Amino acid sequence: MSHRGPLTAVITTVLGATLGGLLVWRVYRTRRKRLPSIQKVADPVEAPHPVEKEFTAAEYQYIQPQNLVEKEFKAVECQTAQLPPPVQIPSSEQLLGVKPVMVSSEEEWQQLWPLMQKELSVFPVLGLDCEWVSVKGQVSAVSLLQMASYSGLCVLVRLLPFRSGQQAFPLSLIEVLRDPHVLKVGVGCYEDGKRLTRDYGLSLTCTVDLRYLALRQRQATVNNGLSLKSLAADLLNVSLDKSLELRCSDWEADQLTLEQMTYAARDAQVSIALFLHLLGLRSDAGPASSSGSSYSELAARCQGLVDVPFRGRGDGDDRAADGERRRRTRKPPTYESPESGDQQVPDPRKNNKRKPLGVGYSARKSPLYDNCFLHAPDGQPLCTCDKKKAKWYLDKGIGVLQSEEPFVVRLLFEPSGRPDSQQDYYLTAKENLCVVCGKADSYIRKNIVPHEYRRHFPTEMKDHNSHDILLLCTSCHAASNVHDSFLKQQLAEEFAAPQGCEEGVRLLEDSDRRRVRSAARALLTAGDGLPEQRREELQVLIKSFLNMNERQELTDEALQQAAGLETRIFNEAYVPHGLKVVRAHAEQGLLGLMDLERRWRQHFLTAMHPRHLPPLWSVDHNHSKFLRKYGEDLPIKLN
Length: 639
Hints:
Elements: H1 4-46, H2 64-76, H3 92-96, E1 101-103, H4 106-122, E2 125-135, E3 138-148, E4 154-158, H5 171-178, E5 183-186, H6 189-200, E6 207-209, H7 210-216, H8 228-236, H9 244-247, H10 258-278, H11 295-301, H12 324-329, E7 372-375, E8 381-385, H13 387-395, E9 399-403, E10 408-411, E11 444-447, H14 451-454, E12 469-472, H15 474-494, E13 507-509, H16 511-525, H17 532-545, H18 556-563, E14 568-570, H19 577-586, H20 589-608, H21 623-630
Parallel strand pairs: 1-4, 2-5, 5-6, 7-10
Antiparallel strand pairs: 2-3, 3-4, 7-8, 9-10, 11-12, 13-14
């Protein structure tokens, strides 16, 4: 046996012990290092999460847990990649327990908007309702707008400070109301949207009436009707205070009472709670999946109900008992459409009731833009056009098909003109969607420069000019028309071109001729049945008009002639509002007309804040081209 055996055993034992000690020490140090990071994650759970100065912790008591979860994940995201947590739906009691927040200025809204935006990124749904004042049956503009998110956060927006342009509406508020990827739910929310459009030019899209959802969900037991109060009682076992004293209180008071604020917030909060209940997204059903809170899935479950006004008898609205439902559903007066042309005096014998804004618009059944291309014989792109026009060149044998996708036709003749640059508006492909909100399933054409002005422009500024025809959804179109009416009124005042007055009416009613016609018809129909004195008075009136002597006898032929008199006469002083405004600008030549065109384009940008304008759309479109081609001294011939 070698002497090296024991020595080797000793050395091995010592090395093994040393390595074992080093391993134990390394594990101990590693755990010591990880301990502070664990404590950091735990800290926010022990201490309440701070919120903005303007709002109390009680107001956001059900939003804070979400924020805590976010902080926890931020602390450990560097160690392990994890999926976002599922959405926890609060119970109805928790949702209704969140205190509302009042907003009455742009600054206050901007402070609150980041929190609201975070809520919508989790669950893109808002419960919505409106309040307004009604005095002696006369309904005033909307006074209060209520919006509640899925967690119960409810914003009460006082609209009085924004009335008549006192303050500008925050852009983010305008955007969220017309966002086609945020559902707005409530009872009568579609009609509330039309009222907001009429009173403030605000566009409200993507609305869903809860009454439709309640009727669709057959398993939902509805015993007391379809009003918000009835649905809340039947489905949520929640009692809403709908006392006349509260509902008809002063919503434009300097300070709203706590009862008013609670009442207003409850309507919006109950609306979102009903929506979650009807779609089966209740707190007792467990956390919702991450995909369940996406807009696409929610919209799919509301298919066929988005932006559809409620049409049904016996909707059970509890406001009907004291006239509140009539206050809500009465058709409001509308503004004259900018596209309606010249103003006309309404015929009193006809029914002149108008539909609410946005109702009755005929949306296009086919896309406006086919994005087909026409090329010159040498292959230079000339313009885009619709497929019908492109095929016309093929059918006539003056063009050949270059490709199917995209559809390109090369002309076999030299065109009369070519684009000055390849960066030309008419060479860009355009999307078939609302240029304001992006809605793609329903749209109509909008004349940015209203037709009543454009029709009087010289031919040089009208031919082959589709730049100022854009696509808008019906809701944005109605809102745009309201804003247009404000600018038209400004133009009327600036250029002494009033709308709807005698000077702006083509035909006038002649009262003398009308009296003669009525007298003749009375004599023909009543005849001897009239008292003798009255019959003589009518005969004298007719003879005077027909320049007959008192001794001459009125024949049946003369009476028939008088009974068929045309009572409307041409107004020699007639000058349409649009023509008068265009004439005033035309006095400054081509530059003046370009100023009017630019003003309407800029007005559209300022009023509607479009987010989906076609590429190269501009307020100065073609202006430099006109100046190069015609010069500032172009003789203006108005149409």
